[in-house]
Amino acid sequence: MKYLAQIDVMTRKEILDPQGKAVKLGLHNLQMDAIDNVRIGKHITLEVDAETEDQARQTVDSACRQLLANLIMEEYTFTLQPA
Amino acid sequence: MKFGVVVFPGSNCDQDAVDALTLMGQPVVKLWHKDHDLQGCDFILLPGGFAHGDYLRTGAIARFSPIMNEVIAHANRGGYLMGICNGFQVLAEARLVPGVLLRNLSQKYTCKNIYLKPQSSSVLVSAGLDKEQPLKIPIAHGDGRYYADADTLKQLNDNDQVIFRYCDETGAITDAANPNGSLENIAGVANERKNVFGMMPHPERAADPLLGNTDGRLILEQLVTSVLA
């Protein structure tokens, strides 16, 4: 069975995200002063063949830990659904 | 002592490294990233460039290139391994040196001469250098902001693992002289065992008198002298 994973990789909260900071300034220039804490990350989608959802979850988790995210500087979350 | 320069798809300072080492009379070969043979090299250098297009994160995919199995085994045996610029990023991704390289605070790719102050008295790459003499070395990177958590940073300082810090031309280590927002102006670090070291600036691009700056040669020459000793 094929599963679709939607993965978000974000820079850890304690690390300054200069891109997010610049975008926040842009939003404030649009008078949206109510907006704060803009952070920009990566969205990754991939398909994985697995017997069960649990197996798919393990594969995606392993992919995130080994390559897709660098846990020194990033955190990840993902969702799975049948593809 | 035989030097090996790894060539990844997207490396662009491999020939500069070969030229600089050749200029110093050292035997040097290029090692293709898909090979599994270090060809008997005693000192492995990961050069600058944009290995695998810098996709995902700089160095993240190169870290899994086939030859990295042998490179990591070489380092774990205590063999010398140095990463310059993109090579430093590969070392960080492979966890061969502590910390990571984040996007420059300026969000810009920065290509210019900066000044470096040698720090560590126990890591070969800086041990023999005059600690008071600032060295003019080019940088060329978009992701050079050194980051490590507080515990790691303390360990680096306590264990004399910081090899260079960014300074101004008088040697003062200031925020203004920090080109990328690196923590504590760190431009290069070594691993705990001090056989693996990485730095963002390019000494190999400042080694030939024809290029008008030989400060990089000071670094490489004393490194070669130290490893041959």
Please tell me about this protein's structure:
The complex is a heterodimer of chains A (83) and B (229). Chain A is an alpha+beta fold. Helix content of chain A is 34%, strand content 33%. Chain A has a single domain (2-82), classed as Mth169, Chain: A (2-Layer Sandwich), CATH 3.30.1280.10. With 229 residues, chain B is an alpha/beta fold. At the A-B interface, helix 1 of A face loops of B.
List the helices and strands and how they pair.
The complex is a heterodimer of chains A (83) and B (229).
Chain A lengths: L1 E10 L6 H12 L12 E8 L3 H16 L5 E9 L1
Antiparallel strand pairs in A: 1-2, 1-3
Chain B lengths: L2 E5 L6 H10 L4 E5 L10 E4 L20 H10 L3 E5 L1 H8 L6 E3 L7 E9 L5 H4 L7 E7 L3 E3 L2 H9 L3 E6 L18 E5 L5 E4 L15 H14 L1
Parallel strand pairs in B: 1-2, 1-3, 3-4, 4-11
Antiparallel strand pairs in B: 5-8, 6-7, 6-9, 9-10, 10-11
In terms of quaternary structure, what is this? Answer: heterodimer
Shape of chain B: globular
The number of helical runs of chain B is: 6
In whole angstroms, how far apart are the ends of chain A? Answer: 8 Å
Averaged pLDDT of chain B, please?
A: 97
The side-by-side strand order for the widest beta sheet of chain B comes to: 2-1-3-4-11-10-9-6-7
**Radius of gyration of chain A from the CA trace?**
16 Å
Low-confidence stretches of chain A: none
Sheet with the most strands of chain B? 9 strands, mixed
CATH class bucket of chain B: Alpha Beta
Radius of gyration over C-alpha positions of chain B, nearest whole angstrom: 16 Å
CATH homologous group name of chain B: Class I glutamine amidotransferase (GATase) domain
Note the beta-strand portion of chain B: 15-25%
Secondary-structure content class of chain B = alpha/beta
Number of domains of chain A: 1
Distance from first to last alpha carbon of chain B: 10 Å
What order do the helices and strands of chain B follow? EHEEHEHEEHEEHEEEH
SSE pattern of chain A, N- to C-terminal:
EHEHE
Largest sheet of chain A: 3 strands, antiparallel
Catalytic activity (chain B): N(2)-formyl-N(1)-(5-phospho-beta-D-ribosyl)glycinamide + L-glutamine + ATP + H2O = 2-formamido-N(1)-(5-O-phospho-beta-D-ribosyl)acetamidine + L-glutamate + ADP + phosphate + H(+); L-glutamine + H2O = L-glutamate + NH4(+)
Keywords (chain B): ATP-binding, Cytoplasm, Glutamine amidotransferase, Hydrolase, Ligase, Nucleotide-binding, Purine biosynthesis
Active site (chain B): 85 (nucleophile), 202, 204
GO molecular function (chain B): ATP binding; glutaminase activity; phosphoribosylformylglycinamidine synthase activity
